[in-house]
């Protein structure tokens, strides 16, 4: 009997998505972003599968993510978006991790390490519109004027920037960012450049440069806002039925008495809730699937349980332990739709799926 909620992750679909992106990308190399536990799906199995498929460059956010990845994959290139924080320098050097240098402080921190270790290469981040991390273009110009050997002294092997509106091809910030990065790259002849996340790969090839950094599209999230999602579905979340019963009288359902069901309705209570990342905002809005049957969620999402109306489903499919699909790209609940219902994005929907939901890899 099925007793715990599960998230089934189709690794071959992730690999197929990476291959699709690699074919589409006009530059030299397509890497993979596996930060935040591969957007909630599990960094270790995802990264292993991608490496087996030929991916050699991985991106994470933090040193601790990089160290976990290094244990699994000793030979790949690992870049760390947050860069090198105080006290982390030697871990970066010892484990051949590549910091993305985001500020003057990080640059100064890295110089002595780069001077000492031949393999201590770095990437340099130019902030062309995101306003989070990176040198502003004018700051970079001034720095290069003052220190023409800066790139050598930090062993900069990659110049990068991040698009803020890549999923929207017509957005005016895209060409502006492109122009700023092109201008910055004139200081770095011969150094490869990386601009594209998932959405960027679907922009004109002049955005592509040498190295791509897709994340969301690997995991089945649409890389473009207004176009059909070309990526293969990857994840499916199923929760077991704890109990099914037929109401003998009209009744309110769940907290606040805000849900209602009538006598004769058959309701199934399943084991997942907002503590598992099923967003509370989905209350009254979401649907699940029992096989082919679409079942509406009744009442509010609670911490550990959800109630679905299974009146229309054959009883044999709704016994204790039978699964209800909460998220299943392949089963009609695409991650972007579930996210859209609560005005969030697929990234958050996946990244929030909690530890109680057992990951199964196929
Ligand atoms: C710097 C950077 N590059 C690449 C990515 C991957 O972006 P996406 O998931 O949209 O492909 C991210 C994601 O947040 C990022 O922060």
Description of the structure:
The mean pLDDT is 96. The protein is α/β, with parallel strands linked by helices and 362 residues long. Helix 1 (11-24) packs across helix 3. It has a seven-stranded parallel beta sheet with strand order 3-4-5-6-7-8-9. Strands 1, 11, 14, 17, 18 and 19 form a six-stranded mixed beta sheet that branches. Strands 2-10 form a two-stranded parallel sheet. The chain has helices at residues 11-24, 35-39, 43-52, 63-72, 89-94, 104-116, 137-146, 150-153, 173-185, 198-201, 335-340, 346-351; strands at residues 6-9, 29-30, 32-33, 57-60, 77-80, 97-101, 122-125, 156-160, 193-194, 211-212, 235-246, 251-253, 259-261, 266-271, 287-290, 293-296, 305-309, 323-328, 358-361. The radius of gyration is 24 Å and the shape is elongated. Helix content is 28%, strand content 22%. It folds into two domains: 11-219, TIM Barrel (Alpha-Beta Barrel), CATH 3.20.20.10; 235-361, Lyase, Ornithine Decarboxylase, Chain A, domain 1 (Beta Barrel), CATH 2.40.37. A hairpin with a 5-residue loop joins strand 12 (251-253) and strand 13 (259-261). It has twelve helices and 19 strands. It binds pyridoxal-5'-phosphate. The site of pyridoxal-5'-phosphate has 11 residues, from helix 10.
Give me the side-by-side strand order of the main sheet. 3-4-5-6-7-8-9
* Count of helical regions: 12
CATH-derived topology of the largest domain: TIM Barrel
Hetero compounds = pyridoxal-5'-phosphate
User: Helix content range of the residues, please?
Assistant: 25-40%
CATH superfamily of the largest domain, by name, is: Alanine racemase
Query: What gyration radius follows from the Cα positions, in whole Å?
Result: 24 Å
The CATH architecture term of the largest domain is Alpha-Beta Barrel
Strand content: 15-25%
Shape: elongated
Ends: how far apart?
19 Å
Overall mean pLDDT: 96
Specify the structural class.
Answer: alpha/beta
Number of domains: 2
According to CATH, what is the class of the largest domain?
Alpha Beta
How many individual β-strands?
A: 19
């Amino acid at each position: 009997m099925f007793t715990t909620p599960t998230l089934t992750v189709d690794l071959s679909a992730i690999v197929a998505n990476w291959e699709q992106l690699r074919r589409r990308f006009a530059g030299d190399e397509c890497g993979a972003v596996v930060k935040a536990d591969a957007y909630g799906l599990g960094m270790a199995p995802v990264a292993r599968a991608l490496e087996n498929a030929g991916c050699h460059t991985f991106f994470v956010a933090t040193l601790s993510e990089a160290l976990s990845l290094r244990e699994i994959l000793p030979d790949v290139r690992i870049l760390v978006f947050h860069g090198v924080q105080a006290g982390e320098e030697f871990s970066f050097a010892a484990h051949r991790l590549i910091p993305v240098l985001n500020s003057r402080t990080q640059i100064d921190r890295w110089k002595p390490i780069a001077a000492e270790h031949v393999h201590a290469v770095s990437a340099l981040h130019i902030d062309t519109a995101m306003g989070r991390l990176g040198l502003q273009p004018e700051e970079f110009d001034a720095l290069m004027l003052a220190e023409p050997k800066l790139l050598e002294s930090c062993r900069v092997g990659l110049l990068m920037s991040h698009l803020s509106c890549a999923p929207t091809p017509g957005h005016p910030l895209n060409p502006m960012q492109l122009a700023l990065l092109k201008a910055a790259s004139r200081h770095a002849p011969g150094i490869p450049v990386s601009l594209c996340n998932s959405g960027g790969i679907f922009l004109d090839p002049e955005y592509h440069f040498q190295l791509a950094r897709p994340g969301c599209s690997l995991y089945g999230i649409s890389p473009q806002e207004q176009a059909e999602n070309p990526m293969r579905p990857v994840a499916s979340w199923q929760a077991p039925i704890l109990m099914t019963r037929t109401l003998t009288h009209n009744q309110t359902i769940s907290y606040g008495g805000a849900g209602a069901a009538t006598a004769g309705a058959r309701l199934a209570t399943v084991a997942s809730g907002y503590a598992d990342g099923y967003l509370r905002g989905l209350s009254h809005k979401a649907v699940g699937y029992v096989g082919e049957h679409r079942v509406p969620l009744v009442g509010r999402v609670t911490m550990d349980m959800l109630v679905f109306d299974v009146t229309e489903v054959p009883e044999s499919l709704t016994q204790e332990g039978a699964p209800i699909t909460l998220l299943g790209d392949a089963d009609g609940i695409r991650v972007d739709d579930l996210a859209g219902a609560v005005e969030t994005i697929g990234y958050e929907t996946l990244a929030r799926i909690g530890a109680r939901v057992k990951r199964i890899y196929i």
